[in-house]
Design a protein that fits this description.
With 398 residues, the protein is mainly α. Helix content is 83%, strand content 2%. The chain has eleven helices and three strands, in the order H-H-H-H-H-H-H-H-H-H-H-E-E-E. A three-stranded antiparallel beta sheet has the order 1-3-2, with helices on one face. Helix 1 packs antiparallel against helix 4 (139-268) and helix 4 runs antiparallel to helix 5. The protein is rod-shaped, with a radius of gyration of 56 Å.
Length: 398
């Protein structure tokens, strides 16, 4: 009996030395790659947030630039209108000054003509005027001649007054145009200053926009670079997963072969019950509250998004290992065995364990611990079609 026990122990130790080390190394690589992927995702998220911020900034600058361009167009239109008005005013002022010059010339001529006639009338002696008046052929003619002298004098005064009024009116218009010209010149200067100010804003905003767009392009390139690295790491992870699956399958086959040999040896033993106690674990395992919490946390980490059937299947794998002579004989030992469950290595398992698993995963763990084992598999992986086995949800069990 002792010899048989020692022989079986040697086989188990040989298996542990041959298979787990390679499997553990591969799993450690997988864990490291997964951690690297998570780090890259975090960096990608930061880069994406930076890109989003720069995109909003660029959008705001584009809006400002559009507003400034609209304001520039409006100010330019006002400036053109003012320039046109100033041009018209200056032309009107030029025409008015010409008219004023002519009015002054006509006033001067009229004044000179009137002075000559007045001088002529006053220089004419009374006898000559009397002769003209007395030479009238009738009284009516007399009155007409007398009225003639008076009319000439009144005409000259009226014309002089009219030219003076015209001159004053033109002079007033000239003053009004001068004032309008001055106000337009001031307005034009203000509009030109405003145009220069807006142009400066446009140039400054354009420079900031160009810089923001360049930064945005760099940030987007960083996001794309992280995406590329993530895809590369995922591809590498898939290769490692395939390698790990092969290693697991090889180990599984060896375990089954050794278990078959153990069964044959046990059948030949004179004390079958004693041999079973020495080489196999009990068919059932009682789990305490601690085991339930550990198993529920692992189920949530590995199958939280799976169906209830998938949760039970994951729990069954853990219990199959507990019952196997090739794995630790406790729930805690199986879960914390190195290189077996990625969530344990990544720290996610500890987080879920601290906060407590959800109701569904807790129920599944308790049901498995009560003996509801739905498969005889020792391994499960994410199903990618490369591993034969029982597919439940997104996992393949083998």
């Amino acid at each position: 009996m002792k010899k048989s026990f020692l022989k079986n122990l040697a086989v188990v130790l040989a298996l542990c030395s041959l298979f787990p080390m390679g499997a553990d190394a591969t799993q450690q690589k997988i864990d490291q790659v997964q951690e690297g992927i998570e780090d890259l995702k975090d960096q990608k998220e930061e880069a994406q947030q930076r890109a989003d911020t720069l995109s909003k900034e660029a959008g705001g600058l584009e809006g400002d630039l559009a507003e400034f361009n609209n304001r520039l167009a409006s100010v330019t239109a006002e400036l053109n209108e003012t320039e046109q008005q100033l041009k018209i005013t200056r032309q009107n002022l030029k025409d008015t000054r010409k008219a004023l010059k002519k009015a002054r010339e006509r006033e001067n001529k009229q004044y000179k003509a009137m002075k000559k006639r007045i001088r002529f009338l006053y220089e004419m002696d009374r006898e000559s005027m009397l002769e003209v008046l007395l030479g009238a052929k009738s009284f009516a003619d007399f009155l007409n001649k007398a009225e003639y002298f008076s009319s000439i004098h009144q005409y000259d005064r009226n014309m002089l007054e009219e030219y003076r009024n015209t001159k004053d009116e033109i002079a007033g218009k000239e003053k009004e145009l001068d004032e309008h010209e001055d106000s337009l010149a001031i307005l034009l200067k203000q509009q030109e200053s405003k145009k220069e100010e807006i142009n400066a804003l446009i140039n400054d905003t354009s420079q900031h926009l160009a810089a923001a767009k360049k930064q945005l392009a760099d940030a987007q390139a960083n996001v794309a670079d992280y995406e590329k690295k993530i895809e590369q790491q995922k591809a590498y992870e898939a290769e490692l997963e395939a390698q790990k699956a092969k290693e697991d399958a090889k180990r599984m086959e060896e375990i089954r072969r050794q278990e078959e040999e153990n069964k044959k040896r046990l059948a030949q033993s004179q004390n079958q019950n004693q041999s079973q106690n020495e080489n196999q674990k009990p068919a059932s395992v009682k789990g305490d509250a601690s085991d339930a919490a550990l198993l529920a946390a692992l189920i949530q980490c590995e199958a939280g998004g799976e169906s209830y059937e998938g949760k039970i299947a994951v729990g069954s794998v853990v219990m199959n290992r507990v019952r196997s002579s090739h794995f630790p004989n406790t729930v805690a030992g199986v879960i914390y065995q190195g290189g077996q469950f990625s969530p344990v290595a990544s720290g996610r398992f500890a987080s879920v364990l601290a906060s407590g698993a959800n109701a569904s995963c807790t129920q599944a763990a308790q049901e498995v611990l009560r003996g509801n084992i739905t498969n005889n598999c020792l391994y499960f992986r994410r199903n990618d079609g490369s591993i034969p086995g029982t597919v439940i949800g997104n996992h393949v069990f083998y």
